């Protein structure tokens, strides 16, 4: 059964099929929320909230956009609401403190933390585009649907965001403060 059929049947009352959508998208949405919040617990909360919104608003969903773009748009809005509704303290220092891995693994974790810290320094509009493009391999058209902007705007945000990331990370990939 394809996604359109599942959504149609859920709208017709077969609510048990919602679990199929959750299984399909949960990990992607969780990881997206993690990249946005930088914290596992906050990402979990935002993921749960995203799926609550999907349940609440699925009847209003129409096939103009792809479902994937629609659900990522909801996740993006939920994460934005999260930052507006709470004083959020980034967990970068805590993430760096307890890392006890072998040298190669340590370097990878350090680089991942540097990239996350650099992402956190970007304006939300650039951060969203970079996450969707590089972590979720979305095409520019899909990203435009998620963020509600035109393709030229998405290209511009992507280019500007990448330039800032290069500045933030420097030559060695270490965060420049």
Automatic annotation (TrEMBL):
The keyword Phosphoprotein does not apply. Keywords: DNA-binding, Sigma factor, Transcription, Transcription regulation. One of its GO terms (biological process) is DNA-templated transcription initiation. Residues 21-87 form the RNA polymerase sigma-70 region domain. GO terms for molecular function: DNA binding; sigma factor activity. SUPFAM superfamilies: Sigma2 domain of RNA polymerase sigma factors, Sigma3 and sigma4 domains of RNA polymerase sigma factors. Residues 113-165 form the RNA polymerase sigma factor 70 region 4 type domain. The keyword Glycosyltransferase does not apply. Pfam families: Sigma70_r2, Sigma70_r4_2. PANTHER family: RNA POLYMERASE ECF-TYPE SIGMA FACTO, RNA POLYMERASE SIGMA FACTOR HI_1459-RELATED. Belongs to the sigma-70 factor family. ECF subfamily. This is RNA polymerase sigma-70 factor (ECF subfamily). It comes from Hungatella effluvii. The lineage of its organism: Bacteria, Bacillati, Bacillota, Clostridia, Lachnospirales.
């Amino acid at each position: 059964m394809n996604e359109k059929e599942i959504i149609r049947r859920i709208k017709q009352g077969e609510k048990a099929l919602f679990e199929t959508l959750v299984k399909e998208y949960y990990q992607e949405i969780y990881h997206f929320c993690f990249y946005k919040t930088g914290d596992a617990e906050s990402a979990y909360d935002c993921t749960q909230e995203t799926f609550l919104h999907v349940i609440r608003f699925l009847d209003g969903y129409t096939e103009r956009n792809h479902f994937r773009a629609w659900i990522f748009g909801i996740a993006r809005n939920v994460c934005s609401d999260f930052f507006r509704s709470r004083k959020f303290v980034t967990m970068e220092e805590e993430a760096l403190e307890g890392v006890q891995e072998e040298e190669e693994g340590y370097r990878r974790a350090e680089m991942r933390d540097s990239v996350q810290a650099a992402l956190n320094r970007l304006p939300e509009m650039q951060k969203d585009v970079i996450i969707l493009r590089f972590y979720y391999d979305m095409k520019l058209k899909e990203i435009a649907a998620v963020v509600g902007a035109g393709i030229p705007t998405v290209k511009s945000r992507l280019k500007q965001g990448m330039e800032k990331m290069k500045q933030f990370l420097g030559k060695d990939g270490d965060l420049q403060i």
